Amino acid sequence: MLRSLSERPDNSGLYEYQDAKNEDTYVIGKIVKCSGIRGYVKVHLYSQYVGLVKKGSRFSLGESGRLRKAGATYRVDNFSIKGNVVLVKFSGIDDRTAAEEIVNKYLLTRERAPRAKGSFLIREIIGCEVWSTDGRLLGTVSDVLPRNSGLAHDVWEIQCGQRRNLIPAVKEFIREVDTSGRKIVVNVIDGLVEG
After folding, report:
1. End residue of a domain, out of 89, 109, 129
2. Who contacts 23 (Cβ-Cβ below 8 Å, separation ≥6)?
3. Which secondary-structure segment (H or E) carries 138?
4. Which domain holds residue 46?
5. In this predicted model, which residue has the larger pLDDT, 145 or 39?
6. Does residue 174 fall inside a structural domain?
7. In this structure, are 30 and 105 located in the same domain?
8. CB 106 within 8 A of CB 62
9. What is the CATH classification number for the domain harbouring 170?
10. 4 in any annotated domain
11. Are 66 and 30 members of one domain?
């Protein structure tokens, strides 16, 4: 049965970002910069994971979603949340110099956030055939570009031969997703896709 994204109030938290090598490890956000001189860092969280950051929570750090070193964890001593951005003070990261060493690292956890209705793992989306609402095969999802990479929304890359189209993963375009049937239906407007 196809599930409709139009039932969702928004498109935040559409995916769980999962470590490809460690399927039980979830990437919950990225440390984007230092804040002040006492070891605080600014973390951009993937929206469905905001509730996992609390005093005493433990996280591993990784590069490109891969574990930095097995067993190394960092405990949250203090934090404040503003939307999807969290200011975090980790135990053992006590000054700006130490904080600078963890900037651009990803926060990893084995704890899974509750999945919202209509949310998908990236690995469930990649490889799905993409069809227009009028029945034309547009190609296959070859990549997912997360909104955290400077985009306003997550964007799905659709590959068809040498042609590549980028479709924003918002309810105005994504009409139905059937991950078990490996099929996605999109509403195509003028200029959205080539060919």
Report:
1. 109
2. none
3. strand 137-145
4. 25-109
5. 39
6. yes
7. yes
8. yes
9. 2.30.30.240
10. no
11. yes
Provide mean pLDDT across the span 160-165: 90
DSSP-derived 3-state class of residue 71: coil
Q: Are 90 and 141 in contact (CB under 8 A)?
A: no
Q: Return the exposure string of 39-54: e unless at least 16 CB atoms fall within 10 Å of the residue's CB, then b.
A: bbbbbbbbbbbbebbe
Q: What pLDDT, on a 0 to 100 scale, did the predictor assign at position 84? A: 66
Beta strand ranges found along 36-182 (DSSP E):
40-45, 58-63, 66-67, 74-82, 85-90, 106-109, 120-121, 129-132, 137-145, 155-160, 163-168, 174-178
Confidence of residue 9 (pLDDT cuts 50, 70, 90): very low
Last-in-domain residue among 109, 130, 162: 109
Give the pLDDT score at 114: 63
Q: Is residue 5 very low, low, confident or very high in pLDDT (cuts 50, 70, 90)?
A: very low
Residue 105 has pLDDT above 60, yes or no: yes
**CB environment 70-107: b (16+ within 10 A), e (fewer):** eeeebebbebeeeebebebbbeebeeeeebeebeebbb
120: nearest Cα among 144, 85, 84: 144
pLDDT given at position 119: 72
Cα distance between residue 181 and residue 123, in whole Å: 14
Claim: this prediction has a pTM higher than 0.70: no
